[in-house]
Amino acid sequence: MTAQEHHAPQSFWTKYIWSQDHKVIAIQYSLTAIFVGLVALVLSTLMRLQLGFPGSFDFIDASAYYQYVTMHGMIMVVYLLTAIFLGGFGNYLIPLMVGARDMVFPFVNMLSYWFYLLAVVVLLASFFVTGGPTGAGWTLYPPQAILPGTPGSDWGIILMLVSLGIFIIAATMGGLNYVTTVLQARTRGMTMMRMPLTIWGIFMATILALLAFPALFVSAIMMLFDKLLGTSFFMPAILSMGEQMGHEGGSPILFQHLFWFFGHPEVYIVALPAFGIVSDLISTHARKNIFGYRMMVWAIVVIGVLSFVVWAHHMYVSGMNPYFGYFFATTTLIIAVPTAIKVYNWVLTLWQGNIRMSVPMLFALGFVSTFTIGGLTGLFLGNVVVDLPLSDTYFVVAHFHMVMGVSPVLVIFGAIYHWYPKMSGKMLHEGMGKFHFWATFLGTYAIFFPMHYLGVLGVPRRYYAYENYDFIPDSAKDLNAFITIAAIFVALAQLVFLFNLAWSYFKGKESGPNPWEATTLEWQTETTPPGHGNWGETVPVCHRWAYDYSVPGYEQDYLPQNYPEEAKV
Amino acid sequence: MAFAVVLVILVLGSVLFHFLSPWNITPIASNWGSIDVTMLITLVITAVVFIAVNFFIAYAVIKFRHTPERKAQYEPENKKLEWWLTLGTSVGIIAMLAPGLIVYADFVNVPEDAHQVEVVGQQWSWSFRFPGEDGELGKSAIEHISTDNGFGVDPLDGAGQDDRLLTSNTLVLPVNRPVKLLLRSKDVLHNFYVPNFRVKMDSVPGQVSYQWFTPTRTGDFEVLCAEYCGIGHFNMRAFIKVVEQQEYDDWLAGLPTFAQSLKKEASEKLSVKAEKGMQVAQQKGCMACHGFESSPAGPSWLGLYGSTRVMKDGSEVVADDDYLKEAILEPNASVVKGYAPIMPKLELSELEMESVIAFIKERGNETDPEHQQGTDAGKASGAELAQSKGCTACHSIDGSRLVGPSWQGIYGSERTLASGETVTVNDAYLKESMFKPNAKMVEGYPPVMPPSQLSTAQANALIEYIKSL
Amino acid sequence: MTTQTSSKAQGLSGFVQDWSADKEAFQVPWGKAMMWIFLLSDTFVFGCFLIGYMVVRISAVDPWPPATDVFALTIAGQSIPLVLIAIMTFILITSSGTMAMAVNYGYRKNRHKAAWLMLLTAFLGLTFVGMQAFEWTKLIEDGVRPWENPWGAAQFGAVFFMVTGFHGLHVSIGVIYLTIVAIKVLRGHYEKKGYEIVEITGLYWHFVDLVWVFIFAFFYLW
Predict the structure, then answer these.
(1) Helix-helix angle A252-285:A197-228, to 10 degrees
(2) Do the domains B115-262 and B382-467 sit in the same CATH topology, yes or no?
(3) Which of A307, B198, B216, C94 could bridge to B32 as Cys pair (CB 3.0-4.6 Å)?
(4) Euclidean distance between CA atoms B313 and A286, whole angstroms
(5) By CB neighbour count within 10 A (0-12 exposed, 13-18 middle, 19+ buried), where does A481 fall?
C-alpha cells in the first residue's frame, strides 16, 4: 500500500522533527509525556509538602493547593499515562510486533503528535493566565468548576477544556492508525491469535479510547458553553457569591454521567496496555510461555467491553437514582473476575519457569504485587454500600494511585528497560536500574499502603488542611509527614532513571539485536535500532505464536515468531 | 532472592501494620454496623488473596530461579485449572457482593417512621430546617433566597410556616430514632458526612437527595463536607449532637419558625412577608388605586395601619388587621368617607392577605419607631455567629492562614489592598467587607468571599467579636 | 504460509474466518477500514450530544418550545410547519443518492461522471448548509440565544445551536472533502490507485446524512 512507498527522509527536519516514522513519533510522544509527567511529579511533591508539613510554605495557599491537585491529576492520567501507553508504546511497538513497515497512515500519525504537543502547550499555558490553572479537581465537576469560589474559574478552566478537546483530536488520529494497522496491516502468518499480548492490550485500549473520548469531548463542549455562553446544560438555578445566577434547569449529574462514561474506560485505557506489556515481560524473562494465552486475550476483550457498563460506581454518592447502585455494583464486581484471572495467569507463568531477575522482570513483578493490592481495594469501593463510608476519603486516593499511579508506572519503567536496547542499541545501566526499582517499589508502597488506613479512619480527600478535627488523631499528622518524606524520596530517585536514560545512550553497553532472547518480531529486525521501513528488503513471515519459549525438543530456549518451521501450536 | 524476601517482609509487615495501626474506623454511632460487617467480609477475602498471590510469587522466584541447567515447562494452557480458578473467584465475588447488596437495600429503603430533617449546604457552611408540627417541609426555591430568607422557603406555602430553622452549625438529633436527611444545596455540590454514622450523600443543587441513619448513642460528632466545593471545602464545618428525645424536643421547640422569621428583622428593608405582600399588591392591581401618595381612587396606605378612619355612614373605625381583611374580601361593605364604592372583589388566600397587610403596615408606617428594634430570634453572640454563618471556614482566629485573612489582631491594623492603597481596618471597613466583599480585597487573597447574610445587629455583634481577637 | 482461505464465507463462519485470518481482518483497503472506525467513534460523539439533549429536555424547568411552531415558515400567507427542515432533509437524502451514483461510476472507471456527481453532491451539501445558516439567522432574529429564547426552556437554543452547529460543521467538512477528491478524480489522480477513495468519501457522506435523520427525528419531530 501507499505507506511503504515513500522514500526515506533525508534532512534533519524530516528525520527527527516532521517525521512520519512511527518510531520517531513514538519517541516524541514519550519524551513529551515524560516531561509533562515530571511537571506533575513536582506538583504532587508540593501537595505533599502541604499535607505533611501544613503551613510551612507560604506560597502553597488553599488556592494554589487545589490548582496543584487538579493539574497533577489531569496531567498524570491523560497527558502522561494515556499518551505514553498509546502514543509512545503503541506507536513504537505495533508496526514492529505485527510485522508492518509503519502505521497505515503515517501523515495522520505525525499530525497526531503535533496536536498532542499543542494540547500540552495549551494546558501548561493555563499556569500563566489570570487566575491561574483550574483548581476544580481533575474531575472538573460543575457547577463549581466554572464558578468563582473555585480557583482558575476564569481562563484556567477554559484552557483546560480546550486542551482536552485538542488532545481528543490527537488521540483519535493516533487511535485510528493503531487500530487499523493491527486489523489490516499484519504480515503473512500473523493472525490475531498470534499477536503478542502487548499488542492486544494496546489494541483494546485504543478501541476504548475511540469510543470513550467522545463522551469527554461532548461534556467539555457543554461545559464551555455553560461558562462562555451562559447555557444551562449542567447548571441548575443557583446562587454564586450571594447572587442569583441566570442559569436554570441544568443537571450537574448529567456531567458526571458523561464524564465517567469516559472516565472509567479511561482507566482501562491505561491498564490494558500495562496488562499486555507485563505478560510479555514476565514471559520473556521467565523463559516460559504466558500461561493461558487464549484466556488472557479473552480477558482483555471482556474487560474492555465491561468497562463501558461500570461507570456509575464513581457516582454512588452523587445523588443519582439509588437503584442504579445495584446494577453498577454488580457489573463492577463482575469485571473483577477476568481481571483476577489475569493475575493468576501472570503468577502461574512463573511456575516451572526459568526466572531471570533482570530489571524488567523486577518491575513486572512489582506490578503484579502492587496491582493486586490496588485491584483488591477496588472491591471495597465497587461494593456500593462499603463505598458509602469510603467514598471521597484517602482510601480512594490510595486505591487509584496503586492501580493507576504505581502499577502502570512500574510497567512503563520495566518496558523502557526492556525495549531501550531495541530503540538505541545500548543497554540501560543495570545497577542504576536496580536502585531505581527498589527505591520506586518500596517508596511507593510506603506512600500508599498506609494511606488506605487514613481513608478507613474517614480522613477526606481534597482537603487543604486538617486543623481542629477531633476524630483525626495526632498520629495521623505524623503519618502524613512520613508519607511526604517517602514521596520526596521517590521523586528524587527518578532523577537516577533520567540520568540513566541519557548516560546509557552514549556510554551504555552495546546490546546487540536481541539481548533478552525474545521471540517477538521487533527483536528480529536487520538493524538495531531498526531503520526506515523496519525490515530491510523483506518483511518477516510469522510462523508461530509469540510464546515459544523453552519448547521441548529444541536446543535454544526460544523460537522467534519468524522461525521457519512448522508451528507446534 | 532478595525480591522474594522483600515481598514476604512486605506482606507480613502489612498484616502487622493492619493489627497495630492506630488508624482504624471511627467508633460507630449509628445503626450501620452492617456496613462494618460487610467491610470486614471484604477485608478477609481480599487479605487471603493478597497474601496468597504475594507468597506464591515469592516462592516461585526462588524455586524457579534461573540456572544454566533449568528448562522451563512448556504449557500453553491448562483449561481445568483455569476453570477452577474462575469458579473460585466467582464464588469469592458473590460472597462479597451478596451481603453488600442486601445491606444496600436497607440504605435505599428508608424506614417509614424516620423523621425528616432538611440539610442545606452552601459555600461554606451548613444550615438545617425541620418540618414543624404539620410534618411537612414548605416548598423552597433559589429565587426566594434573600438575606432574610436564607432557606429560600416560599412565603406563600402554608406548609412552610411552621418549619423550624437552624442557622447555627450544630444539629441536634434524638438518639435511637431513624432520621432521613434531605439534602439540598444553594450553589455547588457538597456532601454531608459524619464518619461515625458511616453513610454519606452529595447534596446537588437543583434536586433533593437523601441519606438515612439511626443514631445509636448520645455524643458529639463532627460533620465533614465530602465533595469538593471550592476553596473553603476543607473547613466547611458542622457538628451533630445526639441527645435524649426530651432534650431534643425542648431544643427543637426553641428554634424560630419560618413564620417568625418572616417578620421584620433589623435589616433596613421590608420583611420577607411584606416584600411578598408588595408583589401580591402589584399583581392584583391594588397599587392602581391605592399607593403611598394621596389617591382619588382609593385611600392611601401611608400611615393607614392602626389609624382611625371615618366611614361613609359616619362611624369611626380603627384600621387594624380585621378591618383590612374585611376591606379586601368584602370591599364595598363599608367604604371610607369621600371614596366611591368601586373596589373590585379580589380572590386572595389567607397567606396572601397577611402578606399584603404586612406590606401596608411596614411600608405605610416606616417612620414608626417600633419597627426600628425588630425582632431577634435569640441574639447570637459574635463568636457563635462567626461559626454558624460560616465565617470561620475561611477566617481563622488564631493567626493561621486559611482562605482569607486571619481575624487575629486584624482590628485596627493596616492592610494593603489589591489596588495598592493601604487601609486601616475599622468598623466601616469591616462592615463594607461583609456586605461588599470584593470591593476592597486585601492583597494576596483570592476574591471568593460571598456577601454575608446578616442583619445590622448581627454585623455589629461580629465586629465586636473581631475587635476582641 | 497463510491460513487464509479464498472463499468468502458468510454469516458466523465468515466472521470466524475474518478474525482468524492473518494479514487483515477485513478485506477492504486501509482507508475504508479507517473511515468505518472513525465513523463509529463519531457516532458516539453525536450519540452523546443527543443523549445530553434528551436529559436536558427532561430536566428543564420551563416547557420546551414546540418545534412545529418554531420552525414554521409563512409562505403565501400560510404558516407551514417544518417546511424548511423537510426541504433540507430531502436535499440531503438526494445528495446521498447522487453520492451512491458517483461511487458506482467510480468503480466503473467513469471518471467524469463520478467527479461531476461528487461535485453535485457537494453542491447539494452546500445548499443544505446555506439553508441551515438561513434558519440560524431567522431564529437569531426571533431572539433565540444559547442562553434564552422567547418561547420556553432556555436550553432549547443551546441544544439547537450546539447540535446543528456540529452537524453543519461535519457537512461543511464533507463538502470540502468531496470537492478535493472530485477534482483529483477529474485529473486522473486515481487511475492507478483505484477508486476506493470515492466509496470512502461516500461512507463519510452517508454518515452525515444518517446523523441528520436522527437529529431530525429527535430534535425537530419530538
Answers:
(1) 160
(2) no
(3) B198
(4) 113
(5) middle
For A231, phi then psi, to 5°, come to -75, 175
Closest-CA residue in chain A for B124? Answer: A149
DSSP, collapsed to helix, strand or coil, labels residue A244 as strand
Q: Is the CATH number of domain B272-373 1.10.760.10?
A: yes
The β-bridge relationship of strands C78-80 and C73-75 is antiparallel
Distances (CA, A) of C89 to A231, C92, C93, C125: 28, 5, 6, 11
**Do C30 and A105 make contact, defined as CB atoms within 8 angstroms?**
yes
Q: What CATH superfamily classification does B115-262 receive?
A: Cupredoxins -  blue copper proteins (2.60.40.420)
In a domain, C144, yes or no: yes
Please report where in the chains the cell 532513571 appears, as a residue: A497
Q: How many domains does chain C have?
A: 1
Facing residue for C155 by CB, picked from A218, A231, A261 = A231
Domains in chain B: boundaries:
2-108, 115-262, 272-373, 382-467
Distances (CA, A) of B322 to A362, A495, B274, B348, B400: 90, 85, 17, 15, 58
Give the ipTM of the model, two decimals please. Answer: 0.94
Residue of B17, B184, B228, B443 best to disrupt the A interface, most CBs of A under 10 A: B228
Which of A352, A355, A379 is nearest residue B61 as measured by Cβ atoms? A355
* A55/B400 touch (CB, cutoff 8 Å), yes or no: yes
Structurally, what CATH architecture does the domain formed by B382-467 represent? Orthogonal Bundle (1.10)
**Contact by Cβ (8 Å): A249, C152:** no
- Measured between beta carbons, the chain B residues lying within 8 angstroms of A148 are 447-448
CA separation (Å) from B12 to A422, B15, B45?
Answer: 39, 5, 17
Q: Between A and B, how many CB-CB pairs are < 8 A? A: 343
CA angle A13, A14, A15 (to 5 degrees): 90
With a CB cutoff of 8 Å and minimum separation 6, the contacts of C104 are none
Please tell me if residue B78 touches chain A, with a CB cutoff of 8 Å: yes
Contact A258 C162 (CB under 8 A): no
The answer to whether residue A12 neighbours chain B at the CB level (below 8 Å) is no
The CATH number given to whatever domain includes residue C52 is 1.20.120.80
- The tens-digit pLDDT sequence of chain A (569 residues) is 444 445 787 888 888 889 999 999 999 999 999 999 999 999 999 999 999 999 888 889 999 999 999 999 999 999 999 999 999 999 999 999 999 999 999 999 999 999 999 999 999 999 999 999 999 999 999 999 999 989 999 999 999 999 999 999 999 999 999 999 999 999 999 999 999 999 999 999 999 999 999 999 999 999 999 999 999 999 999 998 878 898 999 999 999 999 999 999 999 999 999 999 999 999 999 999 999 999 999 999 999 999 999 999 999 999 999 999 999 999 999 999 999 999 999 999 999 999 999 999 999 999 999 999 999 999 999 999 999 999 999 999 999 999 999 999 999 999 999 999 999 999 999 999 999 999 999 999 999 999 999 999 999 999 999 988 999 999 999 999 999 999 999 999 999 999 999 999 999 999 999 999 999 999 999 999 999 999 989 999 999 999 999 999 998 899 999 998 764 44
Cβ-based interface (< 8 Å): residues of C facing A? 1-3, 19-26, 28-31, 33-34, 37-38, 40-42, 44-45, 47-49, 52, 55-56, 59-62, 145-147, 153-155, 157-158, 162, 166, 193
Left (φ > 0), alpha (ψ -120 to 50) or beta: where does B41 sit?
A: alpha
Residue matched to cell numbers 506512600:
A447
By the 8 A CB rule, do B38 and B105 touch?
no
Contact list in A for residue B205 (CB cut-off 8 A) is: 143, 236-238, 252
